[in-house]
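Translate sequence into C-alpha cells.
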Amino acid sequence: MPRLSGPVRFRGGGFAPSDNAWASAGTLLGLVALWQLGASAGLIKSLFLPPPAAICDALWHLAISGELWKHLSASLVRLGIGWVCGTIFGVGMGLAVGLWSAFRSPGMAVVAALFPIPKIALVPLFIIWFGIGEGSKIATLAFGVFFPTVIATAGGVDNVPRGLIRMGQSFGLSTWAIVRAIILPGALPAILSGFRVTTSIAIVLLVAAEMIGAEQGIGAFVLSAGNLYDTDNLLAGIVVLSLMGLLVAWTIGRLERVLLAWR
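Result follows.
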C-alpha cells in the first residue's frame, strides 16, 4: 500500500461562490471601453447609439443645470414610497399565508389570480381610481411589489425546518417568540432575495407610470428625449436608471451582510 507523501488536499470547498468587486467593476468598465472604441472607430453609428463620452457630457450638463436632480428626486420619492408600501403589506400577507391555514388557500388563490396580470395594463385604471397625480403611480408600484413579496415570504416560511419549530414548541415558547426567533430568521434569506426582484420590478413600473402621466421623473424625461430623437439625453436617462438599480442592489447586499451575519 503506497504511503502518502503529504497532507491530503481539502476537497470540501466547492459550491461556495464569493463576490469579487474588482471583477464586477472590471467587467462593466471593459464593456464601456469596447463601446467607446467601437464608436471611435466608426463601427457604431452615434445617431443610433451615442458613445459613452457623449452620454457623460449629457449627464454633466443635466447635473449642472439642475434638471437631473429635479427628475431624479421625483422618481426616488415615488420609488421609495411605492416599494415600502408594497413590501410591508406583502411581507405581512406572506407571513399570514405561511403560518396560518385560514389565510393560506384564500391568500394564494388571490395571488395566483392577480399576479400574472401585467401591472402596466392597470395604470389607466389606477388613474381613474386615484387620479393623475402621485396616488396612481405609487399604487402601481405597490401593487407590482406586493405579489412577488408575498410569494418570496411564504416560500421562505415554508422552507424553515419544521424540526426547529417543534423544538421551540417543546420548550414552551409562545407563538410570537417562535416567529421572532425561529421563523423570521429562517425565512429572511428568501425575503431579502425577493427584495432584489421587487426593486427591479418597481423601477420598471416606475418608468412606465411616469411615461403615461407625469411631468417630472426619469421616465418622463426619457419619453420626452425619445420623442425629440435626442439620443444623448435618452441614454443619459437610461444610465441613471441603471445606476439606480446598481445602488439598490448594493444596498440590499449590505443589508444581507448585516442581517444574515449569523450564517
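Note: Residues 175-213 form the longest helix (39 residues).
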